[in-house]
Amino acid sequence: MGDCFELELEKGIEDAISRTRFAPHSNNLLISSWDSSLRLYDVDASVLRLEAPSQDPLLDCCFQNDVVAFSAASDGLIRRYDLHSGLVDTVGSHDDMATCIGYSNETCQLVTSGFDKKLVLWDMHMENASSCLRNLDAEVDSMSVCGFNLIISIGASVHVYDLRNFDKPVQSKEAFNGTHLRCVSSIPSAEGFAAGSVDGRVSLQITYPSSSNDIGYIFRCSPKSKDGGRHYSVSVNDIAFSPLVCGAFATGDNEGYVSIWDAGSKRRLVELPKYPNSVASLSYNHVGQLLAVASSHTYQEASEM
Questions:
Q1: Hey, what's the signal peptide range on this chain (predicted)?
Q2: pLDDT tens, position by position, 91-111
Q3: Is the domain of 114 the same as that of 220?
């Protein structure tokens, strides 16, 4: 499964961590936070390479490539960062808080959503990005972009879009019969998704193009312990799939536990020692040998990653 890498931050983040993302081709780690700063850490050297402050909390971030990144902020602005020069410009904005962001290399599109109930595709082929707008009935709670697929969760439902045809979802379904979803994650080298609920369950829907061994089931991450020390229903805050081991993925919950699972055998492979705060975000590096775990008071203050 590779190593689990723990990074103590010398310069503490002053508020809750909203997202961690490893770069596409390096061990640089992007971190957005409610303290209004975007940070880039060189994990190999344990050095802070960039800190870009703004006026309002940053609620999500993503890479375009190893030298360009984006953030979504509570003021609605979508910002672009040149990670070498430190220059920052504005791609566009939402009419309310911008909450989710992702990038597709296949289509060169940036995808954003916000409290304005809008889902926006920004064409990054041009310097001044053009946009394609879709109005929704509710706010997007979670988003994941992989290849041509955009996966979003709204309330208890998962919706899958093909970015080449944005007119309507190619798939819509309730994952847990009415239970609110906390996170969704797309799956490298396969079609499908994983969704985590506020009551501690994960739904897997995986289709492998070159195999008939499709996977579809629901399981509970935190079964009731014999000593009563673990809550039975704990929100699954994030899910990250390993690019190294097919079908392996990590879950992080609101009680501070990170578990690594094998989708095919339906087994828990590893459970990491409990973190002092809830797990806000998970990210594997590009070769699947490092796992970044952000342990943070959700929307309050961040203590460590």
A1: none
A2: 999 999 999 999 999 999 999
A3: no
Cα dihedral 115, 119, 125, 126 sign: negative
Note whether 217 and 263 are same-domain residues.
Answer: yes
Q: Mark whether 188 and 105 lie in a shared domain.
A: no
How many independent structural domains does the chain possess?
2
For the record, the structure tokens of 273 come out as 């020692």
Spell out the residues 6+ positions from residue 220 whose beta carbon is closer than 8 angstroms to its own.
200, 201, 202, 232
Q: Which residues of the chain have pLDDT under 50?
A: 1-2, 300-305
Indicate whether 60 belongs to any domain: yes
In a domain, 168, yes or no: yes
What percentage of the chain reaches a pLDDT higher than 70? 90
Q: Are 214 and 208 in contact (CB under 8 A)?
A: yes
CA gap 43, 248 in Å, rounded: 23
Around Cβ 243, how many Cβ atoms within 10 Å?
A: 16
Single pTM value for the model: 0.92
pLDDT tens digits for 7-55?
Answer: 666 667 889 999 999 999 999 999 999 999 999 999 999 999 999 999 9
DSSP secondary structure of 134-160:
EE-SS---EEEEETTEEEEEETTEEEE
47 is in which domain, residue-wise? 13-140
Which whole-number Å values give the CA distances from 106 to 111, 112, 147, 295, in the listed order? 13, 16, 6, 32
Residues 72, 61, 248: CA angle, nearest 5 degrees: 140
Q: 226 and 120: one domain?
A: no
Take residue 18 and report the two structure tokens written for it.
């909203």
pLDDT, position 68: 98
- The one-letter code for the residue type at 205 is Q
